[in-house]
Amino acid sequence: MDIMREIFYNSVGVIPSLDIISLFYFTERHIMGEEQKMATSMAIRAAIDGIHEIVGDNGAKILFRNIGFSHIYENPPGYTWEPCLTVPEQAKIYGEVINLVGLNGGIGIWRRIGYTNIKYAVEIGHILDAFMDLPPTEKYLRGMEIFCAASGKGKPVPREDGLADFDCPDCLLCAGYKTDRAMCGVYEGTTQFMIDFAFGKGKYQVRETKCMAKGDDTCYFSLFQK
Question: Alpha carbon of 180 to those of 93, 190, 216: distances in Å?
Answer without folding.
Answer: 23, 22, 11
